[in-house]
Amino acid sequence: MSFTMKMNVEGDTATIRLAGELDGSSAPDLNDLVTQAVGRQVGRLVLLLDELTYMSSAGVRCLVFAHQKLPRGSQITLVGTKPEVAETIRLTGFDRSIVMR
Amino acid sequence: MLACRLRIDVRHVSLPGVVADFIEALAGEAGLTSRQAYWLRLAADEITTNIAHHGYRGEGGVVDLSGEIEPDRLRVSIEDDAPPFDPGCYDPAPRLAVPPAQRDEGGYGLLLAMGKVDEFHYEYVGGRNRNTLIMRLLGGANADGPGGHRTG
């Protein structure tokens, strides 16, 4: 069980690569990183998820947290989401508020 | 029939990880597909996390997980001593009706827990909550088979 993340900020876009498993143990770390991104005045968040193998509801709450912390109208884009993770997001209806590609 | 049990204090620093290991081992023995193993793990994770946060209100307590591999199904029972709570009575509809950006952060766990297992049962027995998760064993060409690839 491991989880790693790395953030790169360019202009108004924060790109965060997540790898491993996003659950109740690791979610607070992602929230901290999102808070840092918000502090750098970003208006767009890109999450690279091709190496994220698991996401529980704690991870979905991170997406909601990010959506609410970023400036109104900000875009959240998920890239490379694995099928089960994408299905988890769709089950909660949150896919309507983000871009998944 | 293979059976195994695990008792864990919900204050364990890596409760989701311990539950995942338990489910992964069972799923491997039972020959669940990788998708089945993923959703069963998610369900067990969500149920135990909910017990820890809401059942015991973060104050600690034990959760007993047991797994039984039957000829046609894998049965996982999760028992706790928190006040009676039937996850089946949780209605996610009002929450899902709210635009996601305006929702509370929480409340998704039970929705996910019950969404993908083949059967979910709840009973209050002997002063304990018992949540039962069942995955049917597919077998044949559609299954990964014992020892096949598993997520986790």
UniProtKB/TrEMBL annotation, chain A:
GO molecular function: anti-sigma factor antagonist activity
SUPFAM superfamilies named in the record: SpoIIaa-like
UniProt xrefs under Pfam families: STAS (PF01740)
Top-rank taxon: Bacteria
Residue spans crossing the bilayer: none
Family of this protein: Belongs to the anti-sigma-factor antagonist family.
Protein name per Swiss-Prot or TrEMBL: Anti-sigma factor antagonist
Organism in which the protein naturally occurs: Nonomuraea phyllanthi
